[in-house]
DNA sequence: ATACGGTTTGTGCGCGCGCACAAAAAATTT
DNA sequence: AAATTTTTTGTGCGCGCGCACAAACCGTAT
């Protein structure tokens, strides 16, 4: 492995000069600069990033801005990924801080951004919900030379370092394919179980999944109707009543259910209570309760998009970029969509 | 972050003493040893592994022993993973070398082992095929204090550092479930397409998959018969003839095919030639040709076990263990089994 | 020729650690 | 008590790098 000293000798200059060239710090005669650059190129020299890390002896801070979350919420999963990655990058001098905002208040988002700016972050991870506010924010970051990474959603600016997202539409399309796998020809009804509370939401991200699902149905099973069933997540008895009502009029071979949020375990509990294991049920996200439902046969498939891993990767690559100056390989990363059933889900717990 | 100097001051000793205690190098008074140990425990001190890496300034070599392979072989995938990981760990002073042996000659395996021992490796990754020979080999490694990692198969000794394997039986079981998903009730025939050459093999690892598959069928679809179809991988015309013959007597809704090796693309080519996209076809391994078959609709599902990633992880963790003294978290790692179809496979290419 | 301002270059120190060797302390022998 | 051996402890150097500061260089004005 080559060192800075080797390069310096080859070029007939001192270590300092090489250092100045490598880091573009100026104050070096054009002629020598070119010579050093040439040798660096030819030899493929890259400064030892570990030595560099301990020499700089800096502490970086990454601030992550995501929506507020309650227990069981999808954003809780994301936050978990951020925290996990935070522990891992601690050893190379990167602290990770999470700042949350109310996703229904642009005001609150501004405050979060301003607060982050005030802390003077080395890097930022942001899950944006408000276009204008985000644009203003990332412009300021760019002006200050602070790298930022989008997760979940991205804007169409090109200043971001990376983007880690979930293909929501595609996961809905996939869900439709998986759900209708079984006896495709005979399917004429699908129940889409939805959460009452979500009815009033301005922008429910799972609507994209629904759109993908609907398009698939339209393309492949035009004769099939999709019926919405609204349930209250906090009232077990009401769920039972509503579902009982639906199932009464539904022939046994038409019990196809899908939920686009992560709460399929709610329906699973109902099915378990009624001893109905033969239904065709598809849900999303690898919550423990969902996995349990897979194992006991009440849910057929779970599609896992690992938003926790996405968040963790965002932090990890940004941390490596800051601490090791590691260039990023690609800008856009879309999560894979794992199809889980009772026979393979045990192998997904890390 | 604490440093050795901090610990030394707290304990009222010098850096050297702390160093001796941490690395169990002896030559330190029992009383002080205990005191230092206490402080290290309490403060959760871990020496900065990056500083440690550059200070030791050692080069480690990992030797990997795997069966010989030809283009398109499964072991080629494994070798790819080893090589990839080798590039990544180069930066922390670990070289990776691959040594192959003829998996039908115990003699050749011995030679490979002896050759590796002669090179004085820092660590070893081995995919064992011969029990006795491997046992002899790993005993010698243990005696010399050289850590070793199993991939693919493991022995029942307990000296290994880690094991990275594929749950073959389970993947066969899963394959059966996926294959028979569609119109489960009506299935009465499955064709298991097999490679003629493999007929003579003493131990074909894919036989485990077949066993898992058969057990599933026995348990869930006892009325279903599994018929073997033998093809010659190098003769496209013969494949067509054989398959034509099989299909002639097979009603359209009984065209269920599975292959337990990675060659499902052979059947896919045939199906494509005949314009048969409605068949129910399951195969294994994420070869590019298999993915293509998924996309064009001739193959329904591919089960991917990522033996390349397994190999890469083996090298990575061993390298980190050697270079950074990172303790290993778990001994046994089984690969996940990803279910791929035409709608999610694009998201799996790293 | 000397002084001066600006540019360019070289060197020394420190980051945290491992390791070797010298110094100090303790134990043993004479 | 002195000499010797053995055990224990402290210190200095180097790993590869970043950064600051001093030294050297250069051209121009005095």
Topology record:
Two copies of one chain form a homodimer.
Chain A: H1 4-11, H2 15-22, H3 30-43, H4 49-56, E1 60-67, H5 74-89, E2 94-101, H6 106-119, E3 123-126, H7 131-144, E4 148-152, E5 162-165, H8 168-179, E6 189-195, H9 206-220, E7 225-231, H10 236-248, E8 256-258, H11 264-274, E9 280-284, H12 288-295, E10 301-304, H13 307-324, E11 332-334, E12 338-340
Parallel strand pairs in A: 1-2, 1-3, 3-4, 4-5, 5-11, 6-7, 6-8, 8-9, 9-10
Antiparallel strand pairs in A: 10-12
Helix pairs in contact in A: 1-2, 1-3, 2-3, 5-13, 6-7, 8-9, 11-12
Chain A binds a DNA duplex (30 and 30 nucleotides) through helix 2 and helix 4.
Care to count the β-strands of chain A?
Answer: 12
Order of helices and strands of chain A: HHHHEHEHEHEEHEHEHEHEHEHEE
Biggest sheet of chain A, in brief? 6 strands, parallel
Look at the structure and give the mean pLDDT of chain A. Answer: 93
Low-confidence stretches of chain A: none
**CATH fold category name of the largest domain in chain A:** Rossmann fold
Briefly note the structural class of the backbone of chain A: alpha/beta
Q: Main sheet of chain A: which strands, in order across?
A: 2-1-3-4-5-11
DSSP summary: helix tally of chain A: 13
């Amino acid at each position: 492995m080559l060192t800075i000293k080797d390069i310096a000798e080859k070029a007939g200059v001192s270590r300092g000069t090489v250092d100045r060239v490598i880091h573009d710090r100026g104050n070096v005669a054009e002629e020598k600069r070119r010579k050093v650059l040439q040798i660096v190129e030819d030899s493929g020299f890259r400064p030892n990033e570990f030595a560099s890390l301990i020499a700089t002896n800096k502490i970086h801070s990454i601030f992550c801005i995501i929506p507020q979350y309650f227990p069981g919420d999808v954003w809780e999963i994301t936050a978990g990924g951020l925290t996990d990655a935070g522990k891992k990058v601690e050893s190379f001098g990167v602290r990770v801080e999470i700042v949350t905002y109310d996703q229904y208040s642009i005001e609150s988002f501004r405050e979060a951004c301003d607060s982050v700016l005030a802390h003077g972050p080395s890097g930022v991870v942001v899950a944006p919900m408000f276009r204008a506010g985000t644009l203003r924010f990332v412009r300021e970051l760019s002006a200050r030379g602070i790298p930022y990474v989008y997760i979940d959603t991205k804007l169409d600016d090109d200043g971001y370092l990376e983007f880690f997202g979930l293909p929501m539409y595609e996961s809905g399309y996939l869900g439709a394919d998986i759900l209708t796998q079984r006896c495709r020809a005979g399917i004429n009804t699908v129940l889409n179980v939805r959460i009452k509370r979500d009815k009033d939401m301005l922008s429910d991200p799972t609507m994209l999944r629904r759109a993908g699902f609907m398009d698939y149905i339209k393309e492949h099973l035009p004769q099939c109707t999709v019926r919405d069933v609204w349930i209250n997540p906090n009232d077990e008895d009401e769920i039972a009543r509503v579902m009982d009502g639906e199932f009464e009029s539904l022939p046994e071979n038409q019990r196809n259910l899908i939920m686009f949020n992560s709460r399929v375990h709610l329906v699973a509990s109902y099915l378990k209570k009624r001893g109905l294991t033969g239904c065709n049920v598809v849900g999303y996200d690898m919550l423990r309760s969902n996995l349990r439902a897979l194992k006991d046969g009440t849910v057929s498939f779970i599609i896992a998009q690992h938003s926790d891993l996405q968040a963790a990767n965002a932090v990890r690559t940004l941390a490596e970029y800051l601490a090791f100056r590691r260039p990023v390989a690609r800008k856009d990363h879309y999560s894979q969509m794992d199809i889980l059933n009772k026979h393979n889900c045990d192998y997904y717990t890390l």
